[in-house]
Amino acid sequence: MSTARSSRPRRRIRRDRHGRGLRGPLYPASLPAAVSRAEKFDQLVLDALEPIEARWRDQLTKLDVAVDDVPEVRGNGAAQTDGVLHDGAVPLSRLVPAGVDRTGMPTRARIVLYRRPLEARAKDPGELAELVHDVLVEQVAGYLGVEPDIIEGE
Question: Phi and psi at residue 70, in whole multiples of 5°?
C-alpha cells in the first residue's frame, strides 16, 4: 500500500542544528558594526580627497584614486620605486602614470593607496585620517608637479 506522501521524493531542508535557521541579519545595515574596515577606509579616502578635489578639480579630471589592501610583490624581487611613497621599506601608496595597458588600451593616471600598511602606522582613527590626507597630498603634488604645500593651500 502506497500513499501519496511516500511517492514524492523527499526534499531535505538544511538549517542550523536546532532547525530554526537564521532569524535575520545580526546587525541592521544602519549600525556601524555592519561596515567593514575596508569600507570605513574607502570612506576615509573619499573624505580626505574631497577638499583636494574641490580646489584642483580642473587639473585632476584625468586622475583616478584606488585602494588596494597590500602592495603587489613581484616574484623577481626588483621593486619599482617610481611614484611610490615609502615608509622605510614598506610602500604606502603609488602614483601610476597614464599609459597603455597590455591590450593596447590607454589608461588613466591613478593613485593607489595601500590600506593595510597605512592602518598599521596609525594608532587611532584620527591619526589614520591625517596620514591618508598627507599621503594623498603628497601623491597629488607629485602628479601635478608642484610642492605639497601648494596643494594644501598654505
Answer: -140, 160
Say how far residue 77 (Cα) sits from the centre of its chain. Answer: 25
> How would you classify the pairing of strands 109-114 and 106-107?
unpaired
Model confidence over 4-50: pLDDT tens digits?
555 666 665 555 566 666 666 667 777 766 678 899 999 999 999 99
Pairing of strands 106-107, 90-96: unpaired
Cβ–Cβ under 8 Å, residues 137 and 148: yes
Q: Model-level pTM? A: 0.74
| Cβ atoms of 136 and 94 closer than 8 Å | no
Nearest Cα to 154, choosing from 136, 137, 132, 130?
137
Residue 140 amino acid letter? V
